[in-house]
Amino acid sequence: MSDSAAIAQFKADHLWQAHGWQAEAVFGVAADGRLLAPAGTPAERVGRWVLPGMPNLHSHAFQRAMAGLAERRGKAEDSFWSWRETMYAFAATIGPDELQAIAAQLYVEMLKAGYTSVCEFHYLHHQPDGAPYAPPEAMSLALVEAAREAGIGLTLLPVLYISGGFDGRALSARQRRFGHDVDAYLRLLETLRRQQNEELSVGIALHSLRAVPEPALREVLACELAASGPIHIHIAEQVGEVQDCLATRGARPVEWLFGHAAVDARWCLVHATHLTAAETAQLARSGAVAGLCPSTEANLGDGLFPLADYLDAGGVLGIGSDSHISISPVEELRWLEYGQRLATRHRNIAARQPGDSVGETLWRAALRGGAQASGRPLGELREGARADLIVLDDGSPLLAARDARSALDSFLFAGNTPLVRDVMVGGRWQVRDFRHRDEERIAARYRSVVGSLQLA
Ligand code: NGQ
Ligand code: ZN
Question: I need a surface site. Which of 18, 245, 274, 414 has the fewest CB within 10 A?
């Protein structure tokens, strides 16, 4: 229920709306952090270029603290799978206190980069030997608390992880802390759902088809708790995974999923890198979100998503920073476009019609898909939605002599220092003049925690 009394009223010279920039826009914010239609009261000017904050649709928070630790060549040729071994060793050092400290620092950095909400694809559930914490949801609560400290919106996606491969093999020693049987998973989900509030939603995640055998997938999707909220899954990220799926299940991952689940707009297919033309069309038609993480996909050597065909088919997409090798919606969208330019030797790929702007097309698409994947009222600055917004630095030389035709393209393609000056989440300023309200304390704790990790 929305508390409809405006506690503040703001105005922007230009406010980004689904159709484009709206000049001289005024909006109110209610006590519950939602936007209201303007009333007659005086409004505070927030800036020249004001945009909805970007939802980050895919995050494994703990991985932020290993960024840069897997960039040295190993004995054999490096790949996604050798990176994963480094990641598993790193994950073994993280308990609830470490997770909270790392996630809070990560979320502060996200806010400063222009993300105002995050979907946590969370599978680090138990102690390293697989024994539950007391309480069993301790690691989930560490993420909830970190999001609250930083002031970022959270869609928590507790992950179901049962097997160590398509053949149904048991979890390896390092994967044991990820695992649940279906009953224990549903208990966790039920506990977390009780915590939901304006800034916290709880959805469902299936780690991958590798990790979730068919009977478990069916069982979870059929239960009452799965009747609402977003459903996320990693899919078709690596060629090896596509081959294994074909060998064991007789179909490619996306093809198999569509044959075994009613994939619709509640779903977010994370990566979905390797698609046939038929899979691309089917994914687009379903209304599900393709959850693209270009900086991680580049870092891990995944491959390129068929962007042009997917957009032509009307597909929905959003972006995530996933492994957090980089934390910037600007960089994700820039690399989404640049990967395509490098592969096709053409320009302006995301803009499908003459006159369309690449920056506007991508920001708009990622707001829509990110909001959908979050299952929260985000991505648009309209009545009833969360008051989650960013204000660009109108003092930056990059935005000098830019107008409504060019401001967003300059923001997305030209900035290397963030152009995000102020950030509001749920009607509260979390970042003002490039500074987060609690950044010193959160960074000091992060330094001390990361400094004492016993890395293998
Ligand atoms: C993850 N990350 O769960 O953190 C995965 C790697 C896996 C990405 N796929 C592990 N980017 O897929 O098994
Ligand atoms: Zn992931």
Answer: 18
